[in-house]
Amino acid sequence: MLTPKVIRAISRGRKSRTRWVAVCCLAGLTLLAYDELPGMTAHAQRPSDAGLVKLKAEFARPKAIPFSADDPSSKAKAHLGELLFWDPILSGNGTQSCASCHNPGLSWTDGLRHGMGVKEMKTHTPTLLNVAWAPILGWDGHFRSLEVVAFAGPITNPGIMNRKEGDLVAALQAIPGYRAAFTTAFTDHAITQAHIAEALATFERTIVSGTAPFDRWIAGDENAIGARAKRGFMLFTGKAGCAECHRGWAFTDEGFYDVGTATGDDIGRARLFPNTVKLKYAFKVPTLRDVARRAPYMHNGSEATLADVIDLYDRGGIDRPSRSDLIKPLHLTPGEKVDLIAFLETLTANPKPERVPVLPR
Length: 361
Ligand code: HEC
Ligand code: HEC
Description:
Number of strands: 4
CATH class of the largest domain: Mainly Alpha
Distance between the termini: 50 Å
Shape: globular
Radius of gyration: 22 Å
CATH superfamily of the largest domain: Cytochrome c-like domain
Strand order of the largest sheet: 1-2
Oligomer: single chain
CATH architecture of the largest domain: Orthogonal Bundle
Structural class: mainly alpha
Bound molecules: heme C
Number of domains: 2
CATH topology of the largest domain: Cytochrome Bc1 Complex, Chain D, domain 2
């Protein structure tokens, strides 16, 4: 987070080279603007700069996955979850698996504007990267845990996978490979709805974004990203104010805001909190990991490219009472927009070879 202390540290280290201006103060957080890009870039390349080192550290990758105490991880459970995730047996007509929409080759989304189940869904399929770190899930945050999602969301919903719990349990029960996999994964050896959800959730927690050029840069490799991307990072954490919400290693504070995109009857988090002005049209801050591979963007898939997203933020979206106070016209120059996109592109890791498991039959 850009605390006043970090900002002071950055400003101090920079006085002789670049003039930094504190432009505004919002809820104790300060945004920065800078006016001498070349000096700034040369400076940004010096890892000895205490402020920059500290700023980079705020984006360092965590060491371990936070598995759930209520649903402890095991290799057998994660493996079973992976089988279930890929298996179209989870859908009523036997054609669709979780991976049909959350496709690892597309960074765990589908490249479509809206999810396509039995019917077209109202929202864009979010990536499953780094869901282990999300305290609540869904664009409006209505799922209180990963375990809840499977049956409160896709599997039984007639418009999505349309599979009745009882039928699914019976179908799995009839397959010796699944009986063996549940026996290994769970001490009671039972095939139940709860165990299906637990296995899926355990597998999903292992879906973690890979090391991207940005990570190599903050780890000290100055050549990992280009000068434009470095300037983009300073804009992202400074003048453009992006890091106020896209914070930390996964680039999300897991909060809900109206960034001025949504119109129509999907009022987002206000469905759960109808009396909170700022939650109308508020949706979850998505991770920006692998963002370049995940178009189209936003909860409704309304922005086709990263350039469209940047233009939206530059305009400040729709000015209305619900819009976050952190969103306002940015007046970015064309060069600054290119820098921001260059930075966003450094958050995308090389795709990991994904092996499709052999499904028990
Ligand atoms: C037809 C496409 C489709 C299928 C199939 C599908 N999903 Fe999704 N998934 C979506 C969409 C769309 C959302 C966003 C729903 C919302 O919040 O409006 C979503 C949301 C989620 C989320 C919340 C992610 C977050 O960051 O908040 C999880 C977890 C998830 N799905 C897991 C699964 C699992 C597990 C399966 C298989 C049992 C599955 N999905 C099947 C489209 C799909
Ligand atoms: C007030 C908090 C906030 C700020 C500031 C903010 N964002 Fe966002 N960002 C969000 C939210 C919330 C969404 C999802 C909005 C939606 O779905 O309607 C989002 C979505 C995005 C997406 C789409 C990601 C996806 O997976 O669909 C990108 C890219 C993005 N923001 C980049 C930026 C950049 C670049 C900046 C700075 C110019 C920025 N954001 C500033 C909260 C914020």
